[in-house]
Amino acid sequence: MFILKTSNSISQIARLRSPKFRQTGTNCTLSFWYYNYGESVGAAELQLLVDGEKKPTILWRTYYSEGNQWLKAVIQLGRLPHAFQFSLDKISLGIYEGVSAIDDIRFENCALPPPALSCEGPNHFWCRDTKACIDNLLICDLVDDCGDGSDEESCDPDLQCNFEKGLCNWEQDVQDDFDWIRIRGPTPTANTGPLKDHTTGTDRGRYLYLESSEPRQFRDKAVLLSPLFNPSENGTCVFRFHYHMFGKQVYRLSVFQRTVSNTKGLLLWYKFGNQENRWIRQTLFIRSSKPFQILVEGTVGDGFTGDIGLDDVSFLGCTLYNGNLPTISTTTSGTSVPATLPMNNCTEKEFVCRASGHCIQMIQKCDFRPDCSDKSDESACVMEVCDFEDKDLCGWHQPALEQMSGNSSIRITRTFMWQLGRGANLCPEQGHCPLTDHTTGTEEGWYLFADSSNGEFGNTADIAIPVISLTGPRCKIVFWNHMNGSTIGSLEVLYKSSNRTSKLWTQSGSQGPQWNRAEVFLGVRSNFQVIFRAKRGVSYMGDVAVDDITFEDCSPLLISDKPCTSEEFMCANKYCIPKNNLCDFVNDCEDNSDESPSI
């Protein structure tokens, strides 16, 4: 069907009405092909007319000539429970000719789920009237998936919010750059943001959105805080939400989980860039051994067509926590000691074993060999093997970040830094960070990565270990690294002793979409730290990640009370080493006597 404009009349309007439809299912979409060509062909828009509502909802618009070509429009309708019809309005302006046409109108996935004869199993829900069998994860998500509303009955209102009457029990963060805005209808800027909310599918419904126009600046952040929840170690707590990311300059939406009130916590999920003009559902399974809170963070892109929408947030299988989250001390990791020590006769140069009060030399603390019966001499040290699977940094810490967090006047929200992440939750499409970890080879595995969506070109992020007192002659670090992306920076392994820092290993540029093994020899060293330094590239398309960091054969040599055997060599310091380790260019004795020319 087409409109051929040949008249000179100003503001001619052609209107095409659809038949009436009774209702639609949750995943309903409308698509059609359109042609809009001519010097003053004018605008066209598709309106939704719902029975009982006076004002139509704009579903789609084209403002001008789009060339001598057919283009496809796809419109998300979603669940519309009341009778409705469409109106396609075409306005022509000026005196020049123009042609508008429409063809191949198609509705897809618009029926309600069919009735089922049975609906067994704990993962399904049997709808009361329609007898449809739906997934249990669709219960109490603010969407009428059944078609009779039975999946949304008996739901706890404290675990869901559609923002129709406010923020419910969610709050705006006061430590961010600006706030989410509650709105109905289109956002103020054309070609970005939603035209309607997700709850009602019309412009009378309300939702939250992030405004990217001035005075907002690139990478400004708006954070929304959930209520607090009790621990959920078995993963039965589920967070559902719908997001809208439409516009050429849309940047990032992130979800964090925190158990400490003055940190951002663990990154559970994020999405970059334009995701088209549609609401998208996301489901996250939450595991936590401590009370926790969810943070939804929107980040402004480099321009005004970067609005982000949020609607219909809900929790399933979660319970509210009646208390407050603790705060974390900004003291450098590995330096804290208990307030009281057991009775002892140790000097200031000795370490006190926490259980027995036994005294050991300070050089024996953090040397990869437990000398105390309770292993307390190794408790505040770096772990010998770290795979990050328990979401523990294993003693690794970020000195610069701790200094910044200790200064309340400095914001760390946009800092290029290391953090824990996992799999496809982070970047399933761009591929510039790992889709799976190295330890488990799955999307659920954890690793450490330097988030290049923050910071600027050339920024560095350091993560270090507590001071190691002494290592043995064959000590080495083995780790796996992932460096993929068009603008990847570099990764360095540094050695720091006192005020002197030297480079042990470095790698720069993209190394491909796989985990790569690296090995760094340390040998005999004392009172030193190891630092992993990531340097940011020119853009966010390239995250440096590491996993499975192991300190191999790092405990120092042990002096035995027994004499050396015939197969061993006695070092000048009384250590015994295998004779086949002599003159091998390795300081096995730790005093170099095994490499002496006089042997």
From TrEMBL:
Residues 1-112, 159-320, 384-556 form the MAM domain. Coiled coil: none annotated. Disulfide bonds join C140-C155, C366-C381, C564-C576, C571-C589. Keywords: Disulfide bond, Repeat. Pfam families: Ldl_recept_a, MAM. Gene3D superfamilies: 2.60.120.200, Low-density Lipoprotein Receptor (4.10.400.10). This is MALR1 protein. The gene is Malrd1_0.
